[in-house]
Amino acid sequence: MGYEPKSRSTETVKGEISKLSSRIFDVMAIKSKVTEPGPNVQPCESSDGDAGKLYRVRHPWSAYGVGNEVMGKGMANLRQELPRQGWKIEKVGDDGSKNKNMQILAVHEKTLSQAEITWLKGLDGHEPLIEVNLYSRCFRSVGA
Hints:
Number of helices: 2
Strand content: 35-45%
Order of helices and strands: EHEEEHEEEEE
Shape: elongated
Helix content: 10-25%
Oligomer: single chain
């Protein structure tokens, strides 16, 4: 693939992902509840000699507690504003599920972090929510 993982501090990457995550929520511009867990560090899978040496920071969270009309506005705001915040939208469309949930896949052009944002409309009886899964590129941890 031609990507050489950079050596970075885990705390630096966690801070970067946390800031990007906050900006995504701000861009949604909806008043909703949000799940709490913050960014976490995970090993990256590697088939070469780097196995066990590469990591990524992942920050999954969801916005919930409001109806589909508000969620729709949040997704429309994301489609419009993410490019102005340095994100390149790679895909907008349904996620391939039976419910045809709307999904936005985007890459932050400066950090190359990725976001998978899915609007689960709750057509299966569950509460509607917007699920955000944000993760960094793989990196070598320094100072660990």
